[in-house]
Amino acid sequence: MKTQVEERFSEFYEKWIYQLEEHVQQLIRVPKAKLSEPEDSELQALVSRVTSHYKEYYTVKWAGAHEDVLAFFCPIWLSPLENAYLWVTGWKPSMAFQVIDTLKKSVVPCASMVDMSETQVKKIEELRLKIRLEEEKVEREMERLQVAMADRKMVELARLASRVENGDVVGRVDGLVEVALKGLLGGLEKVMKAADCVRLKTLKGVLEVLRPLQCVDFLAAICMLQIRRRQWGKIRDSQKENTSAELV
Question: Do you know which PROSITE patterns this protein is assigned to (predicted)?
């Protein structure tokens, strides 16, 4: 049974991914030859539309998480393959730098990343280090929340809940558990937003370093990875369903 948040966000995500595919088609149709200044402006407008699309995703996500944060830690709108690659409810920021490294080694003619200047490379490396430190900060906070589930208060509540039989006492214990869980869920919402902010900061930082055509190639690669992973996950789920049907 889906919760209201799961129902709403599943519907939103399907539309959002469809629109992302349309943006990707525009990105990959961009000519790879040297562009004039007016054409650079058009590229910047295209890049802005894609980043606005991602910002919309996080705006809707945060609103949904305020109602039901757990829905985003085990999202039903993603396939098991997609879920396997999640880092605190989304893509890991360090992945962006791996994408840049891959594009820099591209053998495709006119690949814009191959022409990165020394200054750009230095700035990207500085950003990589900064983002890694922020990732570690989020990971430490997530670990603290996980360990908090076994702190003295939670352990005593769990033991007490298994022993009480009186109806009034059970009600009071349930109330204490609810308060304790509310605190933990609030912590999860906070760490999820912190992780999302690192993701947005990574995108912003990378795009500020790259030239317009490089931004286009970078966003096309990042978006395509997300879309392909979703397609591969659906194919795998379909194959499993067919196998299960054959065994019945």
Answer: DOG1
| Location of structure tokens 């007016």 | 38
Pairwise CA distance, residues 195 & 57, whole Å: 14
- The one-character DSSP state at 90 is B
Q: Residue 132, class by beta-carbon neighbours within 10 Å (0-12 exposed, 13-18 middle, 19+ buried)?
A: middle
pLDDT tens string 91-113: 999 999 999 999 988 766 556 78
Residues linked to residue 90 through DSSP beta bridges, in sequence order: 87
> Which H or E element spans position 245?
helix 212-247
- CA 83-141-160 angle, to 5 degrees, is 90
Signed CA dihedral, 225, 230, 233, 238: sign only: negative
Query: By C-alpha distance, which of 181, 177, 172 is closest to 158?
Result: 177
- The two structure tokens encoding residue 22: 């349309």
Strand-pair partners of 87: 90
pTM score, whole prediction: 0.85
Q: Report the chain's terminal Cα–Cα distance, integer Å.
A: 25
Task: Give tens-digit pLDDT for 8-23.
Answer: 999 999 999 999 999 9
The reported pLDDT for the residue numbered 114 is 82
In whole angstroms, how far apart are CA 216 and each of 53, 123, 200? 14, 18, 17
Q: How far apart are CA 180 and CA 192, in angstroms?
A: 19
Q: What are phi and psi of 90, to 5 degrees?
A: -170, -165
- From 6, 4, 169, select the one nearest 74 (Cα to Cα): 6
